[in-house]
Design brief:
Layout lengths: L7 H6 L7 E4 L3 E5 L7 E7 L6 H7 L2 H17 L8 E3 L15 E5 L2
Antiparallel strand pairs: 1-2, 2-3, 3-5, 4-5
The structure holds adenosine monophosphate.
Length: about 110
């Protein structure tokens, strides 16, 4: 599989479609999920094009991996849920529940 830059998150990164932004820096963009499955449901995506978590882990330079996970924590702090309970979810592949083929982490919290 090769990365398809017509996926919805690539379009959000290019500002072709809007999002409810939580945080943006050199490495990540985080925004509200359009169809929330918890009181807080935020997606964090890397700015670089990776299809899924396996592609990201295998091919992203260390700086991007660190930048991504720092971005997840910064988003958690922006949401002010760092002392609450939350889930991080990653779907990989169609049979793993992945619908959008640009790597992303779901942050879910009902606290
Ligand atoms: P996944 O099933 O892990 O690929 O998750 C894809 C997520 O993207 C789903 O939870 C969708 O609700 C969400 N989603 C799809 N389109 C948009 C959009 N335009 N803006 C925000 N979230 C979206």
């Amino acid at each position: 599989m090769i990365y398809n830059d017509q996926n919805v998150f690539a379009k959000i990164l290019r500002k072709e479609i809007p999002c409810e932004k939580i945080l943006e820096n050199n490495f990540i963009l985080s925004f509200n999920d359009i169809s929330p499955k918890a009181k807080i449901h935020v997606l964090v995506i890397p700015k670089s094009p990776y299809i899924d978590v396996y592609d990201f882990n295998k091919n992203a330079p260390k700086e991007e991996v660190t930048g991504f996970w720092n971005g997840v924590n910064e988003t958690i702090e922006k949401l002010q849920i760092e002392n609450n309970g939350f889930q991080l979810k990653i779907h990989k592949g169609e049979t793993g529940g992945q619908e959008v083929f640009h790597f992303h982490v779901h942050i879910l919290s009902n606290d």
